[in-house]
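I am writing to request your help with a piece of structural work I have in hand. The matter concerns a single protein, recorded as an amino acid sequence and a row of backbone structure tokens. Could you please explain, in whatever detail you think fit, how the structure tokens follow from the sequence? Thank you for your consideration; the sequence and its tokens are set out here:
>
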Amino acid sequence: MPALPAPPAGRTGWPWTEAGPPLPPRAGDWPTISVVIPSYQQAAFLEETIRSVLLQGYPALEVFVMDGGSTDGSADIIRRYERWLAGWVSERDGGQSDSINKGWRRARGDLLTWLNSDDLLLPGWAAAMAGTMIDSPDVDLVYCDVQVIDVGSRPTWLFAGQPASLERFVVYWMTSFAQQGFLMRRRVLDACGGVDETLHFAMDAEYWLRLLRAGRNLRYVAQTLAAYRTHDQAKTGNQHYVQMADLTRIVTDFCNTASPELAGVAERARRRMHWNAAHTSYAAGHHAEARGHAIAHLRDEGVRALPRVAGMVALSLLGRRGHDLLALARRMRPR
């Protein structure tokens, strides 16, 4: 394969001037990996994302870039890498979930994933994840630790994976792992379908929940193999109400359709729904909304919830000072 285009001036390191490590020796062929990159108005990061996939040094890689009709120069970046891609489009679509499914419908790989156009794969991702799949044919999906990075690709903190837990998500609104770097078998897509195109924030969490309810085998690979970028223009940073609507709908649907074996989990999820919404609203700076959800939680949970509800109401009334006090309390907490 010909060398990739030269990186922009001043860009060094992974994935600009460094390539991934050589693949370990293995008998037989490596399975084809299909990576779909959904993108919209992410020209500032798109090239770095594409290079992080192509520089894996993996011999059976199929990459699709599904751009939603960006007007920021994204199409020019994609054309620069066109010869290394299995396909691409730049046209109006129904959003990120629609782009992912469009790409997966074109994919021919035995193993599939998607990678957001402001995130990265790290060196050695393909070999480690595909190797785990080859060695463990009973595993349906693998996931890894994810390095959180800033706008300049500097590491900030680590999102460490945990054993996949249905209860952790629906009761506490906390995912067991980040989406970046996951890899799944085609049989999962065939049996469980693609991501929910009516969701625009939490489509990944809904997908993991769907797979767990279907009894799929998810495995954690304890390596840091992908990166999740936080920045001012990230969808997760400016669409609080989309986030709240998605999470509330997912958990409500779960509660309404839970099997008898999961009835206890569903009841706990229902009672904590407003409390989780209060936390999410408070973290986003929506203090009046946080108070409303906290008071609704008191109605759901009863008088035993009064101390924590009172604390949330007090913090929300303090505005920015409440966030500062909470951060101080967390720093002083014994470890």
Strands lie at 33-39, 61-67, 87-90, 111-114, 120-121, 141-149, 155-159, 183-185, 218-229. The chain has 13 helices and nine strands.
